[in-house]
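$ ./design --mode recover --in tokens.txt
reading tokens...
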């Protein structure tokens, strides 16, 4: 498994917190996010929901490292734990609970999985991801499998809210569990990312993720050398 030093985890935490929440509309800058998470200082008056959205990554990163190092594998309970941590005091529904009423993705031309089918669909999703990663023989096949399942996860849309940030956290989880550096989707390329999801363009999303992994490798080396 990739060695997760404290410095690298801190850097990854700030970037995940900023970019993943900003993709969903959070207005905090990366500098403000770093101030909150690393320096323990709230630099200005801000919306409490936005504050909690980034603060939740302070709990999530130790959870991520502990789960990976202890050999936990993906399960319904682990995904619900991720959601509970990442959405604490940041959504209107109960964090960690699957949706009870149908939800939609604005502008999407497909229906998300009905609530009663979510546990079975997500169980199949976990098994499919594991099978694809087991069969993969190189980095390209592994990241392609992760991207394919990311698209599928967003189609299931298992929670009332927070599906995007959990789905992107699962990309990071799956990369690290597969001994690869993660792909952190930058908010500056939100339109490209959303378009790849909306059009189910697996080839484009995979190429995008591989580009991000190459950038991550340079960052990892600079921090951990």
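writing sequence...
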């Amino acid at each position: 498994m990739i060695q997760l030093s404290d410095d690298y985890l801190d850097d990854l935490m700030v970037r995940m917190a900023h970019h993943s929440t900003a993709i969903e509309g959070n207005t905090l800058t990366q500098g403000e996010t770093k101030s909150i998470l690393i320096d323990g200082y709230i630099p200005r008056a801000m919306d409490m929901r936005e504050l909690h959205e980034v603060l939740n990554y302070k709990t999530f990163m130790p959870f991520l490292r502990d789960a990976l190092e202890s050999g936990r594998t993906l399960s319904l309970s682990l995904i619900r734990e991720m959601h509970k941590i990442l959405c604490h005091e940041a959504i209107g529904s109960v964090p960690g609970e699957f949706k009870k009423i149908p939800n939609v993705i604005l502008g999407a031309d497909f229906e998300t999985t009905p609530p009663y089918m979510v546990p079975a669909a997500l169980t199949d999703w976990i098994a499919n991801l594991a099978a694809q990663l087991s069969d993969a023989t190189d980095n390209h096949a592994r990241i392609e499998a992760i991207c394919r399942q990311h698209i599928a996860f967003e189609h299931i849309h298992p929670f009332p809210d927070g599906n995007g940030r959990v789905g992107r956290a699962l990309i990071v989880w799956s990369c690290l569990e597969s001994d690869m550096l993660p792909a952190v989707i930058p908010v500056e390329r939100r339109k490209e990312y959303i378009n790849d999801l909306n059009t189910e363009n697996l080839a484009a999303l995979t190429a995008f993720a591989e580009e991000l992994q190459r950038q991550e490798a340079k960052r990892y080396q600079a921090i951990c050398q």
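exit 0
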